[in-house]
């Protein structure tokens, strides 16, 4: 009797391990992938709040970066700046103004990136943003003309969504690209449901299905071993019928409740009930 109890406890322990492994796989299949972009020497969240009111770029402001960075922008740095004042030309766009927008609220992802890059320098730089516009408030030319304006200048730059090209690199120097030059369009997607006979396999991964099948086989063979030792008449049939019974019994427990010939096979259930 003690030997049988040891066998039951061993089977119960192995079953718990399988269940624990199955739960981990289920959690892994439902996990959400969180992508974090962090550089080793720079942990900065680059953002530009459009609700944060600042003066217009057209007013030749010097506190645009202060409104983006915060109080840390005005902190003194020990290094000596080769350009204490940096003239920054900003292009006038009529589309995709999320990158650069020249209006009464200085906005733009490119401007925010530029200010954060200046903040990482070991010396202080005072940028003066100037819009590249004419007297009518319109764009004063193309991006090539804007870059030609700063050609050969020492303390002048351009901030915006300017594409790096070979002809432009001949007269200006570009920084490391911070975004792709691709244009995307957000449209309503349509999903075609092609339901087949194997659609019910999709909720679980392949590893999880293999684990479930292995757990069913383990449970069936464990109960078959216990019942065979007590000479259950059901196990006197041919081998292929015994194999079908071993495979079908764990699956049938999801739908039917069948008794066993030897009650020790349900020892765990009775033991929990008595407690």
UniProtKB/TrEMBL annotation:
Membrane-crossing residue ranges in chain numbering: 208-226, 238-257
Keywords carried by this UniProt record: Membrane, Signal, Transmembrane, Transmembrane helix
Top-level taxonomic group: Eukaryota
Keyword DNA repair found: no
Gene3D superfamilies: Periplasmic binding protein-like II
Cited InterPro entries: Ionotropic_Glu_rcpt
Secretion signal, residue range per the UniProt entry: 1-28
Entry protein name: Extracellular solute-binding protein, family 3
């Amino acid at each position: 009797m003690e030997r049988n109890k040891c066998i039951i406890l061993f089977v119960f322990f192995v079953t718990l391990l399988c269940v624990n492994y199955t739960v981990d796989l289920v959690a892994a299949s439902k996990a959400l992938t969180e992508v974090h972009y962090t550089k080793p020497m720079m942990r900065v969240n680059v953002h530009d709040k459009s609700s944060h009111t600042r003066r217009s770029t057209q007013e030749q402001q010097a506190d645009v970066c202060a409104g983006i960075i915060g109080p840390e922008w005005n902190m003194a740095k020990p290094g000596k700046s080769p350009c204490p004042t940096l003239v920054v030309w900003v292009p006038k766009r009529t589309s995709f103004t999320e990158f650069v927008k020249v209006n009464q609220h200085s906005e733009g992802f490119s401007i925010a990136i530029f200010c954060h890059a200046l903040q990482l320098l070991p010396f202080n730089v005072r940028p003066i943003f100037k819009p590249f516009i004419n007297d009518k408030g319109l764009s004063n030319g193309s991006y090539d003309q804007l870059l030609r304006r700063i050609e050969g200048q020492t303390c002048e730059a351009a901030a915006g969504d300017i594409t790096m090209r070979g002809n432009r690199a001949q007269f200006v120097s570009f920084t490391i690209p911070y975004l792709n030059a691709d244009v995307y369009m957000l449209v309503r997607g349509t999903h075609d449901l092609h339901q087949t006979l194997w659609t019910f396999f999709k909720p679980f991964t392949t590893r999880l299905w293999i684990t479930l099948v292995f757990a069913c086989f383990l449970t069936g063979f464990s109960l078959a071993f216990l019942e065979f030792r007590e000479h259950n008449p059901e196990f006197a049939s041919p081998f292929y019928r015994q194999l079908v019974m071993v495979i079908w019994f764990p699956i049938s427990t999801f739908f039917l409740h069948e008794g066993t010939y030897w009650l020790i096979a349900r020892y765990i259930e009775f033991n929990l009930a008595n407690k």
